[in-house]
Amino acid sequence: MPQTVFVTGATGYVAKHVVLQLLDAGHTVIGSTRAPEREAELRAALGPHLQTPGTIDNLSVTALDLTRDDGWADAVSGADALIHTASPFPMSQPKDEEDLIRPAIDGTRRALTAARDAGVTRVVLTSSVVAIGQAVTPARGHFDETDWSDLTHPTASPYAKSKTLAEQAAWDFAGEHPELQLTTINPGLIIGPPLDAHFGTSIKIVERLLKGSDPMLPNMGFSVVDVRDVAKMHVDALTAPESVGKRLIAVADSIWFRDIAQTLVDAYPDRKIATRVAPDVVMRGLALFDKSIKSIVPELGRCPKFSTRLSREVLGMDFRDPETSIRETAAYLVDNGLV
Question: Which segments constitute the NAD-dependent epimerase/dehydratase domain (predicted)?
Answer without folding.
Answer: 5-246
